[in-house]
Specification:
glycosyltransferase activity; alpha/beta; 511 residues; Rossmann fold; transferase; Outer Surface Protein A, domain 3; 10-stranded antiparallel beta sheet; 3 domains; 7-stranded parallel beta sheet; 16 helices
Length: 511
């Protein structure tokens, strides 16, 4: 019996498509394996409480165990009774930070700004920043909800960024120290209990994993993110390794002759050390084989399954509403959908576009909406926990990304009986949407044609009805049964022996 071990950066309740896909697979494997484990690597101040919320919400099966590098080495605890800290600080005057989303205050000692404190909503102390006489931050202390100091970050006063993180056990001793270079990369790392020093934090993660996997039967390490490739590939010992691709490996402008993304170099440099590689589309598989000279037997295509969703009814669907579910980030090109919708509104003034998501570009997107005078038509709806309801409310969905690995938003939309309109991109749309049958595929960047396709669905009720009927066939074309069987078989099969020889790929990564 193999033990699936997901090596993942971090888990959170508010999740994007990658985390959602990985949790779905982990929950499936928990039904077919005696143990399923997550090894998470990133420091999270509230890690134990986040994992408990994932269990409580049903997003993660309680049979799945989560082990975090920092939580395990620091012996952190689940805080069920937060310790409320008083806002008042003897000898100090305090002023509210009105810009903070959490309760936060600046503390002054006889006119000098010496501390900044932020609290959780439950009244527990989250962090303290210490300032010098020039108001420059010297260090930051972070606390668990029981008022236990967990990390101190020492700041580089030239750029106000951390240069050293020190992590503490409950007894106050520093167990881990991590230095950061000028770019913010975590480099020199010391584990004091083991008296071990590492050139990079990823090497410390690999050392921890090598020791941890010894307690599991036939461990299989899965790297679902390019952030974890270096760690997984560095692990030595009797372990099987599976690399999983969730997105496109091709850099801007995302064409056949574009360079390989820098973030994928480690993956392809070490691809021979992966026993198996899983991709989401046949198109990406063939591109990898031709570009990187990979053994075809190593590659497995397992697309995401379409969800089982009740199709929209006439009562729930607004014929003049379009929706999108997307991160508000550059690669998703949400702004192009907004610009296209200006053309839609010019011809259909009561047309509306609801964009569900979250991300760093929220304020910029809102500014664009205002500039295009679309405040009454285009709304940034924020994160939704019920994507099916969002799709069921609309005549069509829109996807304008520069690239995708698959595009789960397309299958989710179509499963709800909502035709999808997508840019043509690598990868996904051409294997999911049947152009003109259950949605439309538009040349990337053609905002005028995108608008025309939206209008054709909104204005032609018969076309919309026919496409909706065809769209729900996605649940048969990408069925849960096929998805489940493919992943179960992957863990049941033996890896074929292969001569693993190093090869330099950088020469043809620029093809």
């Amino acid at each position: 019996m193999k033990t699936p071990i997901f090596v993942f950066n971090s888990l959170n309740v508010k999740r994007g498509g990658l985390t959602k896909a990985v949790l779905k697979r982990a929950n499936l494997l928990a039904d077919h394996n005696s143990e399923v484990v997550f090894f998470t690597l990133a420091y999270q101040q509230d890690h134990k409480n986040i994992i408990e919320k994932l269990y409580e919400s049903g997003q993660m099966d309680r049979r799945i165990k989560v082990r975090n590098f920092y939580a395990e080495l620091l012996d952190t605890e689940l805080v069920t009774e937060p310790v409320q800290m008083p806002v008042e600080l003897p000898g100090y005057s305090h002023i509210v930070d009105k810009k903070s989303k959490l309760p936060a205050y600046r503390y002054y000692n006889n006119g000098l700004y010496e501390q900044y404190r932020r609290f959780e909503k439950d009244g527990s102390l989250k962090l303290i920043d210490y300032m010098d006489e020039s108001r420059t931050r010297q260090r930051r202390e972070e606390y668990l909800r029981n008022n236990r100091l967990i990390r101190t970050s020492h700041m580089d006063i030239t750029n106000n960024k951390p240069k050293l993180h020190r992590y503490f056990h409950a007894d106050g001793t520093c167990k881990i120290a991590v230095w950061l270079d000028e770019s913010g990369e975590e480099v020199k790392t010391i584990l004091f209990d083991q008296n071990k020093e590492f050139a990079k934090v990823q090497h410390a993660y690999a050392y921890w994993i090598e020791e941890a996997v010894k307690s599991y039967e036939s461990p299989v390490l899965l790297s679902d993110s390019r952030k974890t490739d270096e760690t997984v590939l560095r692990v030595q010992g009797d372990v099987e390794k599976v690399g999983v691709a969730h997105s496109s490996h091709i850099a801007s402008p995302y064409k056949d002759d574009s360079d390989t993304k820098i973030t994928w170099h480690t993956f392809f440099e070490g691809i021979d050390d992966y026993d198996k590689v899983v991709v989401l589309t046949e198109h990406q598989k063939q591109d990898i084989i031709s570009r990187y000279r990979v053994n075809p037997d190593k590659l497995h295509v397992i697309p995401h399954a379409a969800p089982s969703t009740a199709p929209a009814t006439g009562e729930s669907m607004d014929p003049h509403l379009a929706v999108a579910l997307s991160r508000y980030s550059e690669e998703k090109a949400v702004d192009e959908g907004i610009r296209a919708f200006r053309h839609v509104v010019d011809k259909l003034p009561d047309a509306r576009y609801h964009i569900y998501g979250f991300g760093p570009l929220e304020s910029q997107l809102q500014k664009l909406i205002d500039e295009l005078r679309l405040q009454d038509n285009v709304k940034l709806m924020g994160f939704t926990t019920d994507p099916a309801a969002a799709y069921q409310s609309a005549a069509c969905s829109i996807l304008t990304s520069n690239y995708e690995g698959f595009g789960m938003v397309l299958t989710e939309s179509m499963a709800a009986g909502t035709p999808a309109i997508s840019y043509d991109m690598k990868y996904g749309p051409r294997e999911i949407i049947r152009d003109g049958v259950d949605g439309f595929i538009v040349e990337a960047g053609d905002q005028k044609l995108l608008a025309d396709r939206i209008l054709s669905i909104m204005e032609d009720s018969e076309l919309r009805r026919e496409m909706a009927g065809k769209a729900i066939e996605i649940t048969e074309r990408f069925s849960e049964k096929d998805y489940d069987q493919s992943w179960i078989e992957l863990f049941s099969s033996q890896s074929k022996p292969e001569n693993k020889k190093k090869k330099s790929l950088f020469g043809f990564m620029k093809k």
